[in-house]
User: Fold this.
Amino acid sequence: MVEAYRDPRRSVEERVEDLLKRMTLEEKIGQMCQYSAHAGLTDRIKDLVRRGLAGSLLNVVGVENVNEIQRIAVQETRLGIPLLLGLDVIHGYKTIFPIPLALASSWDPEVVEEAARIAAREAAAEGIRWTFAPMLDIARDPRWGRIAEGFGEDPYLAMVMAWAAVKGFQGPELSPDPERLAACAKHYVAYGACEGGRDYNTVDISERTLREVYMAPFKAAVAAGVATVMSAFNDLNGVPASANEFTLRRVLKGEWGFRGFVVSDWNAIGELVVHGVAADGSEAAKLAVTAGVDMDMEGDVYRRHLADLVRRGVVPESLIDEAVRRILTVKFKLGLFENPYADPERARRVVKSGEHLEAALRVARKCIVLAKNDGVLPLPKTLRRVAVIGPLADDRDAVLGCWRALGDPRDAVSVLEGIRRKLPGAEVLHARGCDVRSEDRSGFAEAVEAARRAEATVLVVGESADMSGEAASRAHLGLPGVQEELVRAVWEAVGGRAPVVAVVMSGRPLTITWVAEHLPAVVIAWHLGVRAGDAIADVLFGDYNPGGKLPVTWPRAVGQVPIYYNHKRTGRPPGPDRFTSKYIDEDWRPLFPFGHGLSYTRFEYSDLRVEPSAVEPGGAVTISFCLANVGDREGDEVAQLYVRDVVASVTRPVKELKGFKRVTLRPGERRRVVFTLPTQLLAFYGRDMRPVIEAGVYEVMVGSSSEDIRLRGSFEVTRTAVLEEGGRVWFTEARVE
Ligand code: BGC
Assistant:
């Protein structure tokens, strides 16, 4: 007779319980251990799997390796439990999409969902069933290189994108669908608030900021059904995130009712010793498992110490059982017991298909932000001679960004190639000018000469892929190396006589203040993935009208950091008087504000209606207005809704994003955009740290960026209501009539 846990007709719960009671303590702990196979399927890895001491591996790549190691797990272990194989499939698997910060610039959740869905389909076809994404760390500090991996500075935008990413990776719910992955919301929590923007550094923030800003996107991911959560490296208010009972057990698993499992970040449990909160590995294991970390990534701490801790009565076995239940539940739901193997035939069909490469182009276009345009863009396709200059002009590596999984630069399209394809009849001159980082100016002369000969110049400057992402914090935020000097040299030689356009590629906001003040056009291209060059050429030459908006503020100077749009008012808001909150040597305002992005057409906002004018807590307010394309091209506008709580019991931000909609309009077309704002979205943590919707007046601002507000109105909440803590999240419904 077949054991109950092998019987797919039984419920997941029954199967989990049946399996659990057959397992030895060592086998249970084995499920809680994950190891990296980045060095290949070594004897050590195979041995750990064979002995039932590893429940999960990361970095196993290739169908053959996947199938070999799964065969060992399924056929050579006592209970035949398949492995959960994970990989950082962040912005694509082999078809590489724009980095997440760029995806957020689309302000289009369908874009994020599509990129995740395709990444999942490719990875799953090769036997990976778990991704360490989405990364949901709010980042207000561009010095932190990992800002590239997330959705920017705003909790509401990140919540919407978190939901979309989870659905894209997992589907409507976690299931055996062979095209889907289990997702992992990381890095829980507040990792982005590291002091000085230095990776892995200390975080010390109030519980109010923690909950309202940093936890918000994680809560959305949990509400969307995310299967797993990763506990972060950083310490938070004195307690490391991977030993934090408050954030993990009380909030995540308690208040929000998270049913999946928590995996530590890479050796984060072992590092509890380095943090100085555990004397040794044994104490670290005890702290982590007690706090609610279910799986130990690569630390080897659980394997070494948990059994002993249980036998000595320090850790109750019930904690182990709880962790194993959570892990096995994910494995059963993914259908791994029925389908542990990858099908090489399917992998060949699916990975890097023409359809996926098309989607990568569509998505990349939507992520481009036109930051400045004094009328030189789009460039005419009738140009006969164009110069494409800069260290990133012909770079197929930078465009793949910081987490390219198994992406291959040979598949990527550089800007130079994109422009050559766009202008088959024209002469396209190319000079690097300098390297991304070196001090060598010997290539300047050639670059200047190319610009002199051309009718228009495109300068492609910024950061290489390894300058953002993990362990890539920067203290300076200008163009690296001598790139700004290159831009100046070219500008001085030809500026004013022929169009000079800057295309800036980076994994973070840069302080390109001089460039933005002098050059007539700046295109922010981030790292756009495998079709970057085609997408950028489409925008430069007007085959695509850019509509992306910044999901993060661009500072003028590093000294302004952290700088973000939803800051508090202070008692002395910046003004002409000296004794107000500003700098004596720099503007207090950013270079480009949150939500900023231009188009080749113009949009007009009119006829704001806010109904009702007074609402009970629990009700909703409808905010609608007319949006018209008054230019002569089709284009996209991201209409943005901001709200300001005029008087509250605690200080509140000057404005907060509460809704948005990317709308495509033909020339002359006019539509009514309708936002339905649930009052729950007005809640915040009051003086007693309970979530509350407070009575009073709320100012409504509708516009084209956080600084370009076109329409203003207000409504009133009639009474104060304290809300229950819980896992529910609210979104503003946005539609176009
Ligand atoms: C990173 C995580 C990543 C993990 C596995 C860690 O160093 O912080 O984001 O998922 O490695 O590769």
